[in-house]
Amino acid sequence: MRVLWEGDFFVHHSLARFNREVCRRLSADADLRVRHLGCAPERVDARLVEEWSDLARASGSGGTDSWDVVVRHHWPPNPRPPERGRWIVRQPWEVGGVPVSWKPMLERLDELWVPSEFTRRIFLENLGARAPRIEVVPDGVDTRVFRPDTGDGGAATGPLRLLYVGGTIWRKGIDIALDCYVKAFGGQRASRDTLLLVKDLGSRSFYAGNTLAARAIAAARDPANPPIAYTDRILTDGEMARLYAAADAVLLPYRGEGFCLPALEALACGTPVIATAGGPTDELCGSEEMLLRIPSHRTWIQWGEPTFAPCWVLEPDRDALVELLRSVARDRERIRARRSATARGLTVRQAGVERFTWDRAARKASSRVREVEGSDAEGGAGCEPAG
Questions:
Q1: Confidence of residue 9 (pLDDT cuts 50, 70, 90)
Q2: What pTM, to 2 d.p., does this model score?
Q3: Whether residue 189 is found in the same domain as residue 258
Q4: Could you give the number of structural domains in the chain?
């Protein structure tokens, strides 16, 4: 079976990570070629090219008629069908309205992959019976790196350590994280016994010009605020794992996510996650101790282009989040009491993180590629905007 996989590979974002992890494993089952797209040469990380040299050697487009299956996973999506071969698109999506401009792509592709049941429901709400075949092929985590015994699990004493990981953009809720943290622990006698670390991603690359990084930096410099630190330094997986393990909780009050990989990585390190209820993180963990859900409600927004159905996001309840943060601060001793490798390992097993490994993701992808390659089905049905 000859497979061409198009997308980013040698850069630092979640789509590229999925491509690297799944394609390395898929290459054992298929004649695989990869085509790196979308990034200017200076943004390609030479260290990733060296580390993933097997995929670098598999780079190349080959002949236009030589592929049994073409898989595309990149942003923005390419709506033009391949000249020959079956066509699969993996399309993460985070908000409640699917763009009408994707209609030609959705009509022609053989299968649509999404990262979560949450995203699958969004497509079905928008398209109904007109939707193409949709399969959930989730992200994963390397449990050899992101594991409960990473580092020392943080000090037994010291300030409450909260960690925000992700782009400092409106959709991911950085403004909510900052405002609620300051409200919970600020005021005339701002607490010095807390720390919020903002680990920014993509502010100088794929989110450049669209971030609230300046707001986070200003909040960190304001002496009236409880302690806030900010960094946008690119870290290795090992460094990220130690960062998760050193936190008492990871704070992710998003408005829109398709999967939320930082939540999974934190859970794999045995660190509790505070995240928006009703989104894809609900699928990652059933433990109330490990996943603290922020009540939320749908709020309607204007999207930048027409969508099949009215567009919405999840708006976290700020008052509830403030109380949740304060309860975590009051409960920090019990949280830290679970920080031994044995206790945290038990918690991780209870959270069900083993369901989301890169090996499992690759097996699902390989199974779907083979199913599509052997199928006689036509592409998706026609899709019309609602209303």
A1: very high
A2: 0.92
A3: yes
A4: 2
